[in-house]
Amino acid sequence: MGNAFAVVEFTCSININGGDKYKILNDGNLIPAVAYGTWADDVSGLPKVIQSVIHAIEVGFRHLDTAHVYGNERLIGEALSLMFRRGIVSREEMFITTKLDAAVSCRKKVVPSLKGNLKRLRLDYVDLFLIHVPENVFNYSKFDILDIWKGMEDCKSLGLARSIGVSNFNSSHINRMLRYAKIRPAVNQIEVNPTRTNLNIVAYCQSEGIVVMGYAPFGFLVPRPSSNITGIPPTFEDPILIRMARKYGKETSQINLRYQVNRGIIPIPRSQNITHISSNVDLFDFSLTQKEVYAINEFNRNLPVYAAPGDEVIAVYRAAYESLLSLSNKYY
């Protein structure tokens, strides 16, 4: 009974100077309820990363999401150092999430890999460190995700990561980890949006006290050049979203992000448009009703923007890795 209560307690939103701006992870650490996504679809977006991150912090983002494979950690480190020197924010005010290099094949390589992340980010620790994908991306002959998780636990024990978690894990992956791991994952980062609501895995994670972070929160509301899928509702002009936006005096984009906050999900919007960045963090002076959340759930088509778990994830990650290897030292 006590454990069940702890799950409820640790996954709730709490009131810290602004409604539900923070959540409590199952290890007791606080995590901001919206994150600024820093991945650029191609390397042409990298030169804008520093200014975009600076603007995101200036307008109120306190959570940045990045990864080894994004190739932008060095740029984010520059932006953070600048903001710290200027006194705009302190290190303690910022929550930084990054992810393990999928080329890491065993426990003993995890801590050295994270130290590489930290060097690029110019940080002594990250707030959240995630296994990026559960799959054996590079077909190692000996590969066990539980062995890698032990390396993640080492990172937390050494204070190099305040919290540890996973990304793109399904319920079977997590169930195996919960059975054998010493430390429960605090977070599972997956794709969540109106056309891919992922109701089952979200419910499963939340029942286990694991907070869900949602990437690609706009789904097919925005153009997806890498996909041949078009014309999938909703759009930003959808009557249902417009009705809600008028009711709350918000943009339909904000309705979409607030929908995910209402579901207990931490959305990760990404944009290099300063107007959009500002509106994407302005989510905490209103709340949708349960019926409005259900109405947006009805758009679900189980259509992934990026990839479904399995071979598709491996293909996407390998493509991103090839892009990373093509970067010059100027960015990486």
From TrEMBL:
Coiled coil: none
InterPro entries assigned to the protein according to its UniProt record, in alphabetical order: AKR, Aldo/ket_reductase_CS, NAD(P)_OxRdtase_dom_sf, NADP_OxRdtase_dom
Classification via Gene3D superfamilies: NADP-dependent oxidoreductase domain (3.20.20.100)
Residue ranges occupied by any NADP-dependent oxidoreductase domain in the UniProt entry: 36-300
GO molecular function: oxidoreductase activity
Domain of life: Eukaryota
Protein name per UniProt: Aldo-keto reductase AKR2E4
Organism the protein comes from: Bicyclus anynana
Gene: LOC112048926
